[in-house]
Design a protein that fits this description.
- The structure holds 2 protein chains of 2 kinds.
- By secondary structure, chain A is α+β, with helices and mostly antiparallel strands.
- In chain A, 29% of the residues lie in helices and 34% in strands.
- Chain A has helices at 20-26, 30-34, 44-52, 101-116, 131-139, 169-172, and strands spanning 11-14, 58-65, 68-77, 85-92, 121-126, 143-154, 157-167.
- Chain A starts with 10 loop residues before the first strand and ends with a helix.
- Chain B has a single domain, classed as Gcn5-related N-acetyltransferase (GNAT) (Aminopeptidase), CATH 3.40.630.
- In chain B, helix 1 packs across helix 3.
- Chain B is globular.
- The model of chain B is unreliable at 1-5 (pLDDT under 50).
- Chain A binds chain B through residues 37, 39, 80-82, 84-85, 120-121, 123, 145-154, 158, 163, 165, 167, 171, 174-175, and chain B through 36-38, 84-87, 89-90, 125-126, 128, 149-159, 162-163, 168, 170, 172.
């Protein structure tokens, strides 16, 4: 089984326009869509358009294994009175989950955010039944701030989301 | 200027020239403090943003008719429907009122009109509001109208020189029957 094969080296780099086809493949899996706010049957044109035109406050990272993009992460930086905060979203190819791709992406995102963008708060939403994602976020110091009721429509019904945030360690005790 | 007891309140949609009154409201320190807005807003940029709201933003204007016949805008509410396809059942509510009417029945009526529009006419299931944890008055107003605290956001935003926490509250339309009444009675 492919899941048991050990994973070759994972490279993390900024997203490029040419990545859109691999990203479209990741987003075509229902299991992946289930854990996000994406919709199925998304047009490849829309995915290409979105990949090619990232907003200036969006920092996109991808994980590459054997030349294939198998995971992506977006860090959207706030403006004005929330310029210190960023919201994070990520997804990993269904065939590559549980093999360190998410951890590699998250470690790079935290490095980028806290050591280079002076972000002191990273926030994200996760479905309460997404145990692997919750475990990943907790491993990286994200704490639960609350449950947002009926936050999304998913596969026929309204479901809650958990709001989590990680504060830059040196800011955690700041007044 | 105080709003007299005999003044009548009108809640209506936004007209294209209302942005000037909104600009005046959002130029008051007391109002800016409790929003996500910045002080010293440029008039041109403000007009650009507020004069013609996008289709998924619904704006209500609270206007008092003074005995003299003059009219005065004392508050506004925005319902921003989430644009993402899987979140179109929810909206973010923002409410501002002039310091003269803070805590007044006029403020409550503006909020109630926004809830009526959102739940009774737009079919929203979830209306959320993000306010500062220090803004006890807003928290009390929202709680009295069926909003429940869901999350406390640490270091949510800067507020007059310091990092302040935020409180995310939400009101679910289908929980406003018996449960809502029980909460209000409690």
């Amino acid at each position: 089984m492919s899941k048991e094969r050990s994973l070759p080296e994972i490279t993390i780099r900024g997203v490029e326009a040419d990545d859109w086809e691999d990203i479209a493949e990741i987003q075509s899996a229902r299991d992946v869509i289930y854990g996000t706010l994406q919709v199925p049957y998304k047009s490849r044109d829309a995915i290409r358009e979105r990949t090619e035109n990232q907003p200036s406050n969006m920092h996109g990272l991808v994980a590459v294994v054997d030349g294939q993009v198998v995971g992506l992460l977006g860090l959207q930086v706030g403006t004005g009175r929330r310029a210190h905060a960023a919201s994070l979203g990520m997804m990993v190819h269904a065939d590559f989950q549980g093999r360190g791709v998410g951890s590699a992406l998250m470690a790079a995102a935290i490095d980028l955010a806290e050591n280079w963008l002076a972000i002191s708060r990273i926030e994200l939403e996760v479905y309460p039944d997404n145990a692997p994602a919750l475990a990943l976020y907790e491993k990286f110091g994200f704490e639960r701030e609350g449950v947002l009721r009926e936050f999304a429509f998913r596969d026929g019904r309204y479901v809650d989301s958990i709001l989590m945030a990680r504060l830059r360690p040196e800011d955690e005790t700041a007044p | 200027m105080c709003v007299s007891e005999s003044s009548s309140l009108i809640i209506r949609g936004q007209n294209s020239d209302d942005w000037e009154s909104l600009y005046a409201l959002l130029s008051l320190d007391e109002v800016v403090l409790n929003t996500a807005e910045l002080p010293y807003a440029a008039e041109e940029a403000f007009r650009e943003r507020f004069a013609n709201p996008p289709a998924n933003t619904h704006v209500l204007i609270a206007e008092t008719g003074l005995p003299s016949g003059r009219k005065r805008i004392v508050g506004a509410a925005w319902l921003d429907i989430q644009p993402r396809p899987r979140q179109r059942h929810m909206a973010r509510l923002t409410l501002i009122v002039h310091p003269d009417v803070v805590g007044s029945p006029e403020e409550a009526r503006l909020l109630e009109a926004a809830l009526d529009l959102g739940e009774g006419w737009l079919g929203l299931r979830r209306i959320e509001a993000l306010v500062f944890a220090e803004d006890a008055r807003a928290l009390a107003l929202l709680r009295a109208h069926g909003f429940e605290l869901e999350a406390t956001l640490r270091r949510h935003a800067i507020r007059a020189g310091h990092m302040a926490d935020g409180c995310l509250l939400a009101r679910l339309a289908h929980r406003q029957g018996e449960e809502g009444q029980r909460e209000q009675g409690a």
